[in-house]
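Form 7-S
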Amino acid sequence: MTSLSNRQSDVFDNPAKMACREGNLRVLRAAAFLLWHDGDRSRLRCDWCELMGATGLLTLDLLERQGVLAPGGFVGIDLDPARIDGFRQGRPDLKWVAGNLYERLEAPELANVGILNLDEYGEFGNRSAQVDFDLIRGLVKRGLDSFGEFALFWNQDLDAVVRRRQDRGRALRRHADMVCEALKGCLPRRELTSEMLLPEGSEKEIDSGFVGVVGAFEIYRGSIGGHRMANLRVILR
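Output:
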């Protein structure tokens, strides 16, 4: 594996990114109950949906090595039809969708999704993020109705906000606020609050270069000089 996370060329085959993938599965096993077939949490009863890019197969490989997928329980989506055709030819036993996720949420391949790895490497503060994420609400609600839980992993570039002269900590707080607002009224038992996702006062620590887990976010980088990424992990029920 290479040692550098390079979001421009979609090269995310590095130890830090693999540790992040493994962390998603670890949190799923520790915090999700209803997405698994039994108490051993060895086999999922829902589909895992992955934004593929050039390295989504690494997630699939991890899930298959761990033996956690339900039969045919992986949905790969990508904007590039040729890439999806290649995946489909290589693995016709799985589900593949070509197009923009936000425009294909009603695709029949997504009907059984209970886990979404929104590994898009977008930048925090992108104006389209609020509009796009609001559309995810329907997918989350469908998963909650089907399984009683929904797992969301959302990975984005934290350090890129400095190019727009924004503070990283404040940008992450606004992101947490946006997620909670988008999911308002969606959860049957409680409402998410920003402080549940990002503890009060975390902004200063994040601005100082923090790397690690803070609240529901894991902040990591692929190399000493690479951008920090912030991966949100939340189990909704």
